[in-house]
Amino acid sequence: MEKMLKDFQPGERGRVKRLTAEGKTRRRLFDMGVTPGAEIVLRKVAPLGDPLEVTLRGYELTIRKEEAASVQMEVLSSVRTR
Fold first, then answer.
1. Cβ of 66: how many Cβ atoms within 10 Å?
2. Nearest in space to 41 (alpha carbons), one of 27, 59, 28
3. 2-77: what CATH class?
4. How far is Cα 51 from Cα 71, in angstroms, rounded to an integer?
5. Cβ atoms of residues 72 and 19 within 8 Å
6. How far apart are CA 19 and CA 62, in angstroms?
């Protein structure tokens, strides 16, 4: 299953499939390590929904929802609901 990083729920894990951003935003994401094949776990979402805190390559990263909307992910594990 695939979905955008902005649509993940806290605790979900996925692998980056591709970036749809262009220009400076794409370069910024690449510089932060958001590259195809990288695994990302969504840790927290701010109370108003922006920004998102993720774990990527062993470090914590805060990313804006607008940037997360351009990261297409392959879902590896989803959150269990009760």
1. 12
2. 59
3. mainly beta
4. 14
5. yes
6. 17
Residues 82 and 52: their CA atoms lie apart, in Å, by 23
Q: Do you know the residue count of the chain?
A: 82
Q: Where are the domains of the chain?
A: 2-77
Q: Which residue has the tokens 């776990």?
A: 41
SS3 35: coil
Contacts of 79 (CB under 8 A, 6+ apart): 9, 10, 11, 12
Give the Cα-Cα-Cα angle 29, 64, 5 (nearest 5 degrees). Answer: 75
pTM of the model: 0.86
Summarize pLDDT for 32-65 with one digit per residue, the tens.
999 999 999 999 999 998 999 999 999 999 999 9
